[in-house]
Design a protein that fits this description.
227 residues; 8 helices
Length: 227
């Protein structure tokens, strides 16, 4: 099983590198996410329920090197759900925020891959927005608002993709991998003794126009066409 997992990780790494190197758009990031999910489901269908239940869960941290919450936070939960993982935000010893994905090894790796691709796509979209607006200078709140709007939109689309994918998988395989994955993750999470709490809104005012522009940029992606 470790050999197959290594092969899957290699393919995930190659897909991530290729997508980001090409300056991926949000459409390409979601298309890649669908491809990653297909690889993962194919891998997990090759395992028995017992194999999956005996596989230890892992934590994979994504560093932000920032002390303040980033717009990407609005998308992290959706990424975790898409990958059948849990996720939380914590601070490292230097007080900088990082996101942690917790789940079966390939699922957690998949979550990190999708996070990096979406984050890269959001930066590309922002630069494109700046060029089109012909900014001489822009405020930090405009950038945060735009990226937050995109993150919210992409999170909604990931939820739609997840529901469609799970239903298609049940119909095609006659097996509900999601139930098994969740059972394994929940049991392993209980042993950590962590008490997660819902994050609260920052209370920071956003530039409405930039938020709407970011949300619209994400909404232009044809989710059905990515799979």
């Amino acid at each position: 099983m470790s050999v197959e997992l290594d092969k899957l990780k290699t393919r995930l790494k190659a897909l991530r590198a290729k997508t980001i190197a090409n300056g991926c758009t949000e459409a390409e990031a979601l298309s890649a996410a669908a491809k990653v999910a297909e690889l993962l489901d194919r891998h997990d269908l090759s395992l028995s329920d017992l194999d999956m239940r005996e596989t230890p869960c892992v934590q994979i941290a994504v560093e932000t090197n920032k002390k303040q919450r980033q717009p990407m936070s609005a998308c992290v939960g959706a990424i975790a759900d898409y990958c059948d993982c849990k996720a939380w935000r914590e601070k490292d010893p230097r007080g900088r925020i990082r996101y942690v994905f917790f789940g079966l090894p390939p699922n957690a790796e998949m979550a990190r891959t999708i996070h990096e691709m979406i984050d890269a796509a959001m930066q590309v979209a922002w630069q494109d927005y700046v060029r089109k607006q012909r900014f001489i200078r822009h405020g930090q709140d405009e950038k945060s608002a735009f990226l937050f709007g995109m993150a919210v939109s992409i999170a909604d689309q990931l939820a739609t993709m997840k529901a469609d994918r799970d239903e298609a998988l049940r119909v095609s395989s006659g097996r509900d991998l999601v139930v098994v994955r969740h059972a394994v993750v929940e049991a392993a999470f209980d042993t950590l003794g962590l008490a997660l709490r819902e994050g609260q809104p920052s209370g920071k005012k956003l530039a409405a126009d930039a938020f709407e522009a970011g949300h619209a940029a994400g909404a232009l992606v044809d989710v059905a066409g990515t799979e």
